[in-house]
Structure formats: structure tokens, C-alpha cells
Amino acid sequence: MLTKRIIPCLDIKEGRTVKGTNFVDLRDAGDPVELGALYAEQGADELVFLDITATVDNRKTLVNLVREVARHVNIPFTVGGGISSIEDVSALLNAGADKVSINSSAVRRPELVDELALQFGSQCIIVAIDTRFVEGNDWVHTHGGRKITEIQTMAWAKEVESRGAGEILLTSMDADGTKAGFSNGLTSRVSAQSSIPIIASGGAGTMEHFYEVFTEGKADAGLAASIFHFKEIEIIELKKYLSSKGIPMRIY
Fold first, then answer.
1. Cα–Cα nearest to 32, from 73, 77, 69
2. pLDDT digits 0-9 by tens, 115-164
3. pLDDT by residue (tens digit) across 29-79?
4. N or C: which end of the chain has fewer CB within 10 A?
5. Catalytic residue among 11, 51, 88, 176
6. 11 in catalytic set
7. Up-side HSE of residue 214: CA atoms within 13 Å toward CB?
8. For this structure, is 220 an active site residue?
9. Could you give all domains of the chain from N- to C-terminal order, each with its CATH number?
10. Which member of 130, 138, 176, 220 is catalytic?
11. Complete DSSP assignment for the chain
12. Are 96 and 69 within 8 A, CB to CB?
């Protein structure tokens, strides 16, 4: 049985790690290089680095910061934010990233998923889906959650898989930062129709929430930010807890 993954997320704004609630009310959470090194040491399975204002500010991800983080971690490292071309991905992989995450650029031009998967391999390409429940449906949002699209989440998840995405990073904007639990119903629906791994994001507040997202939500990985940044939950203790509950974990 494949092990489930625990993935801390570094949301970056102006070179600092930040965390908010429902994608707003951001507060400082520390230095991304120090946090990345700490999480690698504590047994995180992977690390995600999202430059959350790159698309809104119409600029590229901070390549130098990516390079510095990569120098201090020895686990798979995913980078997202402002990526819209083969050249962008090349620069980030050369700076030390193992995978990239695309969101707004894929919605704007879905063929980008095909092109990147062909050029770099599906294993490198994660499509991030930021989704919110509005008027009876789950809708894809872009630009750091600021813009609603006319694309339904389930249909988009199917499409990006068909185009060559290797994983989906599914963030429930309704649950984000609330610490009230992952959106397990949505996650399980996406997981049920997908043959690629689903990373669940948004809502983690307790160890039980991770157990629920792996069992009820059928997720392959659980991603969280503030509970790790503010030392509310230690990664190794979380993994021991999940392992004791029968969830396959890689414990270093």
C-alpha cells in the first residue's frame, strides 16, 4: 500500500511566509528558508512553496528564494505562482524545484498543461485547483482565489488529468485557514473520479482532520500551513498518530 504524505505549505508574499483565513487576513509566519529546513528535518514528505501574489502582481516566482530554499531541503519540493511557460518551469527546476504547480495560467490556457507534461513529464506537473462552493456548485477560482471562473471543479479536475497533470492540489477556499477540517466530501468526489494523486488542502486543525481526509476524503496527501508554522502540531507526532490508526506513513 502506498504511504500517505504530509506536506507543509509555505505561502510566500514579499519573501516571507504568510498565512490567512479564506485566502485573506494574512499574517507573518516566518522565514521560508528556515521553515523549509525545519520541516525537512522533522520528517515532512514533501514541501510546497506558493508565491501567492505572483499572478496578481503580474510577475514571476522569486527564483532566487526558490534556489535558497532548495539548498536547505532534501525532500521533494514543489513551487507555484506566476508560472505560465516552458521557460518559467525550466528556470524553477534549474533552481532546485522538483515539481511545479500551475493554476491561473492553466485555466487561462489549458493547453499549457499538455505542453508542460510533454516537455517535463507528468510527474513534474501539479495543477492546483482553488475551489469555493457558490450557489449550489463548486467553482474554480484563480488569481490567488480572487476571481471566480465559469468552470466547475469536478469537470476541471477531469480535464487537467486528461491533459497530463501528474497530481491535483485541491484547496477548499471555504475551509482554508478555518481549522475546522478538510472538505472531505469534495475531496472524496474528486478522488473517486481521478486516477492521479489528490493533495487535499484547506481546513487542517487537528490530527483527527488528517485521519478523516485520508479515510473519508480518500486523499493521497494532506497539506497544511498554519498548524505547522505556529507549532500547533509537530509533523513526527502527527505521523505517529496516523500510523497508530492504520494509515500507512513513512516515518524517518
1. 69
2. 999 999 999 999 999 999 999 999 999 987 789 999 999 999 999 999 99
3. 568 888 889 999 999 999 999 886 655 555 455 788 889 889 999 999 999
4. N
5. 11
6. yes
7. 24
8. no
9. 5-244 (3.20.20.70)
10. 130
11. -PPBEEEEEEEEETTEEEEEETTEEEEEEE-HHHHHHHHHHHT-S-EEEEETTTTTTT----HHHHHHHHHT--S-EEEESS--SHHHHHHHHHTT-SEEEE-HHHHH-THHHHHHHHHH-GGGEEEEEEEEEETTEEEEEETTTTEEEEEEHHHHHHHHHHHT-SEEEEEETTTTTT-S---HHHHHHHHHH-SS-EEEES---SHHHHHHHHHTS--SEEEESHHHHTTSS-HHHHHHHHHHTT--B---
12. yes
| Whether 73 contacts 36, CB under 8 Å | yes
How far apart are the C-alpha atoms of 34 and 225, rounded to whole Å? Answer: 14
In angstroms, rounded to a whole number, what is the distance separating the alpha carbons of residues 175 and 145?
Answer: 13
Q: Distance (Å, rounded) from C-alpha 76 to C-alpha 223?
A: 14
By the 8 A CB rule, do 78 and 126 touch?
yes
